[in-house]
Amino acid sequence: MISEMTWQELRDAAAEDYGVILAVGSNEQHGPHLPLATDTLIALAIAKGVAERTRTLVATPLYYGYKSKPLSGGGQGFPGTISLRGATLVSLVRDLICEFIRSGFKKITVLNHHMENTNFTYEGIDLAMREVNDPSVRVISIDNPYATIDQKAIADMFPEDFPGWDVEHAAITETSLMLALYPELVRRDRIADDQAERHPPYDMIPAPPDTIPASGVLYKATFGTLEKGKNLYEMVVEGISAAIRREFGD
Ligand SMILES: [Zn+2]
User: Which domain holds residue 104?
Assistant: First the structure.
């Protein structure tokens, strides 16, 4: 963790060509059983796993993200869903990438774990790269950490047809990972399935109430298990580590 290093230790690590990984999450409702920082906590745990397998340091994560969308996170109507404007997130990512580079890092990974952040993180990276304009710097931008896993292995984990990542919110994946990584933060007695009455293939603004489940759980949380969490964690850490080895040669 960069936050626990001294400036000289960081300077030396950057000089030895260590990479840095920035986890980007959200502060968003995750149903009655998971904490608001679920996205950030999972991304941070994955980043720490990757740092154990590659020459990578873990940056202090971004605990806030872009606004929750009703179809993929329940929307902004839930107390505790505390979000950034898109322009703020773009600026945060841009500033941090520029600062990583100024500190000497040339291998940067941005690991996003909140669907709505996609494109804002990419834009922040792109603006920073234009600003710095150093061809020796490279960035891996990961919109969806689970895209790095063999999708057959994902399909095997789901008892029914895979519902799609948009409704995998406070559901099987996140419940399983939180059981495996932060068991003390899971309110086990409040795990319950839910689903919106309808899930249209477009957004309505404002969102009709029947497109948002009252609990904030968008699919089947009860299918989450500790074992699935452990397996998924191992697969995703290896998937991202493999990407870093491939692109950065570490
Ligand atoms: Zn989430």
Answer: 2-248
